[in-house]
UniProtKB/TrEMBL annotation:
Keyword annotations of the record: Aminoacyl-tRNA synthetase, ATP-binding, Cytoplasm, Ligase, Nucleotide-binding, Protein biosynthesis
Gene responsible for this protein: gltX
Subunit structure: Monomer.
GO cellular component: cytosol
Localization (cell): Cytoplasm
Motif ('HIGH' region): 12-22
Name of the protein in its database record: Glutamate--tRNA ligase
Record-level GO BP terms: glutamyl-tRNA aminoacylation
Organism: Paracoccus aestuarii
Residue stretches making up the Glutamyl/glutaminyl-tRNA synthetase class Ib catalytic domain: 7-301
Family annotation (NCBIfam families): gltX_bact (TIGR00464)
Protein family according to the UniProt entry: Belongs to the class-I aminoacyl-tRNA synthetase family. Glutamate--tRNA ligase type 1 subfamily.
Length: 464
C-alpha cells in the first residue's frame, strides 16, 4: 500500500489579527504537510458573523503571507458551507444516529436545575410520536463505554460517554453548531491530520462521536500545548506582543520567526538554528512536547541575529523595505539604498533585528552637515581635526578600497605618533556623528569618496 500524503489545515476564527499561537499552529501544520509532499489547507471559521468582517479575515491572510506560509487552493469559508452541514445533520437523522429534540430552552434549564452537574438527557431521544414543531437535531451519542482519543502528543485520552450529552448538531433555527461544522469540513476537505492547540482537546471526544456516527475515518490528532509568556502564565496582551504583526513591527525577519516559532513546543535534538529545508525535513509530531512552551525574547533575538547574518544582502534589503513600509516609515532613497547595500556585509553581521540594523546604518541615512552627538564630539579637538585634514589629503586620490583606506589612516596615525584608534574616533564622529557605528572603513566605502571627503571637510573647516 502506498502511504497517502497528509492533508493538514489551519482553521482560524477571524479575531482581527493573527495571534502568535495561531501562527505557530499554522506553521506546524505547514511544516508537517510540506515536509511530506502533502497539502496545507486554510479554512476561515467565520460563522460568528459579527466578528467575521472581510478586514478580520484579511488580517489573518496577511499574517500568514508575511510568515511565508502558503496554502493550497482557496481559503474555505465555513459559513458558506452551512447548507452542507445541515445536510449531514439530516443524513444522521436518516441513519438513526441523530434525533429531533423538541425541548425548549426553558425546559432544558428546568431539567438542569433539577439534575445539577449532569449532562442533559433529552426526553425525545427515543420518542416516536413527534409533534410538528420547531426542533433541534441532536446526536444520539453512545451512553456506555468511553470515547478514546489517540492523540499524538497527549497520548490516550479517555472520556466516559455518560459524561457527554447528546450534543446539538443543528439548532432549531436551522444553523449548524460549531462541532458539526468542524467535522463536516475536515471530512470534506480530506483532512488527515488535525494539529491544533490543546484548548480544543475537550471538543475532540465530541467530534470523534460525529465521525463515528457518520462512519467516517477519524483524522490523526495532535493537540499542542499553548504558548506561555516569559513568566510561565498563559500568553496575553499583558506580556506585550501577542499578534504576529507586533513581532513583525519589532523587526524580526520572517525566516527567524519561522525558526523561532518552530522551536516553541517542538524540538529536534539540540538544534536551535535551522533553515526551512531542515525544518521541513525534521518536523514530526513525535518531536512535540507536552509542556507549554515559553516565549523568550532573548532567544528570539539570538535566532533573529543568526538569520539576518545568514541571509543574502538582497534578502535583508527586502526585509528592510518591508519593515519600513509596515511601520509607516519613509522608503529608502536610491542613495540610501546604495550605501546600505555597500555596508550590508558589516551591518547584517552585527544586527539582531531590523531596527538594530537601521540604527547601525544611521550614518548612511543622515544628511550633511552631520550633527555630532556630545559624546562623539569629545574626540574632535584641534589635534584630531588636523589629523583628519592630513587624512583627507592622503585619500583624495587614493583608490577607494577598504585596504587602501585603512593603510592611509595607519600612515597618518604613524606620522602623528599615535595609534589607529586615535584617528578612528574623530573619523567616526565626522562620518556618523555618533560613537556606535560599523567600522570607519566600512562607512567610508559605503559613503563613497565624494560624500566621505565632504563630511571630513565639514569638520576640518572647523579646525581654524
Ligand atoms: N477555529 C478554531 C480556533 O480558532 C480552531 C478550530 C480547529 O482547529 O479545529 O481556535
Amino acid at each position: 500500500m502506498t502511504p497517502t500524503a497528509p492533508v493538514t489545515r489551519f482553521a482560524p476564527s477571524p479575531t482581527g489579527y493573527l495571534h502568535v499561537g495561531g501562527a505557530r499552529t499554522a506553521l506546524f501544520n505547514w511544516l508537517f504537510a510540506r515536509g511530506r509532499g502533502g497539502k496545507f489547507l486554510l479554512r476561515i471559521e467565520d460563522t460568528d458573523r459579527a466578528r467575521s468582517t472581510p478586514e478580520a479575515t484579511e488580517a489573518i491572510l496577511k499574517g500568514l503571507r508575511w510568515l511565508g506560509l502558503d496554502w493550497d487552493g482557496e481559503p474555505v469559508s465555513q459559513f458558506e458551507r452551512r447548507d452542507r452541514h445541515a445536510e449531514v445533520a439530516r443524513q444522521m437523522l436518516e441513519n438513526g444516529t441523530a434525533y429531533r429534540c423538541f425541548s425548549t430552552t426553558d425546559e432544558i434549564a428546568a431539567w438542569r436545575e433539577a439534575n445539577p452537574r449532569q449532562p442533559f438527557l433529552s426526553p425525545w431521544r427515543d420518542a416516536t410520536d413527534l409533534p410538528d414543531a420547531p426542533h433541534a437535531i441532536r446526536l444520539k451519542a453512545p451512553r456506555d463505554g468511553e470515547t478514546v482519543i489517540d492523540d499524538q502528543v497527549q497520548g490516550q485520552v479517555r472520556v466516559a460517554n455518560d459524561q457527554l450529552d447528546d450534543m446539538v448538531l443543528l439548532r432549531s433555527d436551522g444553523t449548524p453548531t460549531y462541532m458539526l461544522a468542524v467535522v463536516v469540513d475536515d471530512h470534506d476537505m480530506g483532512v488527515t491530520h488535525v494539529i491544533r492547540g490543546d484548548d480544543h482537546l475537550t471538543n475532540t471526544a465530541r467530534q470523534i462521536q460525529i465521525y463515528d456516527a457518520m462512519g467516517w475515518d477519524r483524522p490523526t490528532y495532535a493537540h499542542i500545548p499553548l504558548i506561555h509568556g516569559e513568566d510561565g502564565k498563559k500568553l496575553s496582551k499583558r506580556h506585550g506582543a501577542v499578534g504576529l504583526h507586533e513581532f513583525a513591527a519589532l523587526g524580526y525577519p520572517a525566516a527567524a520567526m519561522r525558526n523561532y516559532l518552530a522551536r516553541l513546543g517542538w524540538s529536534h535534538g539540540d538544534d536551535e538554528l535551522f533553515d526551512d529545508a531542515q525544518a521541513r525535513d525534521w518536523f514530526g509530531l513525535e518531536g512535540i512536547g507536552r509542556a507549554p512552551a515559553r516565549l523568550d525574547f532573548k532567544k528570539l533575538e539570538h535566532v533573529s541575529g543568526h538569520h539576518l547574518g545568514a541571509m543574502s544582502d538582497a534578502a535583508v534589503l527586502d526585509e528592510l523595505d518591508g519593515f519600513l513600509a509596515e511601520t509607516g516609515a519613509d522608503p529608502l532613497t536610491a542613495t540610501h539604498r546604495q550605501r546600505i547595500a555597500a555596508a550590508m556585509p558589516a551591518l547584517k553581521e552585527k544586527a539582531r533585528t531590523l531596527p538594530g540594523l537601521l540604527d547601525q546604518a544611521r550614518f548612511a541615512l543622515i544628511e550633511r552637515p552631520v550633527a555630532v552627538e556630545e559624546k562623539a564630539s569629545k574626540s574632535l579637538d584641534t589635534v584630531s581635526r588636523g589629523m583628519l585634514k592630513s587624512l583627507t589629503a592622503a585619500v583624495q586620490n587614493a583608490s577607494w578600497s577598504r585596504d587602501d583606506l585603512e593603510a592611509a589612516a595607519k600612515a597618518v596615525a604613524e606620522e602623528n605618533g599615535v595609534g589607529l584608534g586615535k584617528i578612528a574616533g574623530p573619523l567616526r564622529a565626522a562620518l556618523a556623528g555618533t560613537s556606535a557605528t560599523p567600522s570607519v572603513f566600512d562607512m567610508m566605502t559605503a559613503l563613497g569618496r565624494e560624500e566621505t571627503l565632504a563630511r571630513l571637510q565639514d569638520q576640518t573647516d572647523l579646525a581654524g
